[in-house]
Amino acid sequence: MLPQPDGKLALNQSGTDTPRLSDEQRIDWLRLIRSERVGPRTFRTLINHLGGARAALDALPELARRGGAMRPGRIMSRDEAMREIALSQRLGVSFVTSGEPGYPPRLAMIDDAPPLLAVRGGAATLMNSAIAVVGSRNASGAGLKFAEQISRELGEAGFVIISGLARGIDAAAHRASLAAGTIAVLAGGHARLYPPEHEPLMRAILDAGGAAISEMPLEHSPRGRDFPRRNRLISGAALGVVVVEAAYRSGSLITARMAGEQGREVFAVPGSPIDPRAAGTNSLIKQGAILVTEAADIINAVNPILGQPVELPMAEPENVAPLVRDPEDSHRARIVTLLGPAPLGIDDLIRLSEISPAIVRTVLLELELAGRLEHHGANLISLR
């Protein structure tokens, strides 16, 4: 998905130079994605169907009102956007959109890719083929040693290592791959590094030509719900995810699940059945993950993928109906009645409501901007 002169998103099929956003468009994009209740999917719908970010910003209050919001969601002001841009310049951070140099090409393939990515460090590193290495924060000595070994060997084979800058396996993977290139994906903003004791590691990554990326506001301190959002970027930017150690119900297993949903390879390192830190990886192997004991297991699995071009998805599939200007109240009431706390597929909602897809999509957008809609993945939605 690439920025066009009007700020819409489209597919680059020619392989020619990528159009860039103008400074004013980049400000509008930043304001829109930082506005309340606007996530990557909603951003894409708004910008494509309303003619660009400026028109989308103007339409937000009315769309939220029609969705039943008691008050409109907060919209980032131009002054706030300018302050964030000024801070980014002091930190050496660039706001990059998918298709521009410095935006990992495979990350742009996922359906909830960040419209703007805050990038610091070597853009060339972000363009290379990456393997994610993740695992337990409370890792064993054996797990740390294996993470270092496999990250170093993958780096020597020409792969960049991507991980989450967390304690334990993540940090070991980053340190072992400094020479070959490594990417840190941050759960918070660039000005609020987490964990703070990894500031020297972050500096070492940047000094070695590596990079750090984040979709969060620069001064955002990460909260619990931000880590799964970060994990989808780790898996999305990689060819595959290697889980070295992971207990049940761990963040690393969330990354593995997201990798599977994104069509990425999932690798797992087997461990002792009596070590709870290996329970998650052993379970992944039982579920079909590729068992890993050496770097060759990973390289052999991803080699066929390397020869395939990275094709960015169309911003909107051709068979998706456009939005409508203002749905009838009876249609809106019918859609809201069919929705409830139990997840329902969008296709099922269209079928059961007997209302056109364009109207259903418009009402869902209104509910989203009113803070009344919850997404569950696989096109499942519910009312909050």
Describe the protein's architecture and organization.
By secondary structure, this protein is an alpha/beta fold. It has three domains: 90 residues, no CATH class; 187 residues, Rossmann fold (3-Layer(aba) Sandwich), CATH 3.40.50; 55 residues, Arc Repressor Mutant, subunit A, CATH 1.10.10. Helix content is 42%, strand content 13%. The chain contains 15 helices and 14 strands. It has a nine-stranded mixed sheet. Strand 5, helix 6 and strand 6 form a beta-alpha-beta unit. Helix 3 packs across helix 15 and helix 9 crosses helix 10. It is globular, with a radius of gyration of 21 Å. The two termini are 30 Å apart. The N terminus is likely disordered.
Which sequence of SSEs, written as H and E, runs from N to C? EEHHHHEEHEHEHEHEHEHEHEHHEHHEE
What is the level 1 CATH name of the largest domain?
Alpha Beta
Provide mean pLDDT, rounded: 90
CATH fold-level topology of the largest domain: Rossmann fold
Helix content: 40-55%
Estimate nothing, just give the exact number of structural domains. Answer: 3
Oligomer: single chain
Give the overall form: globular
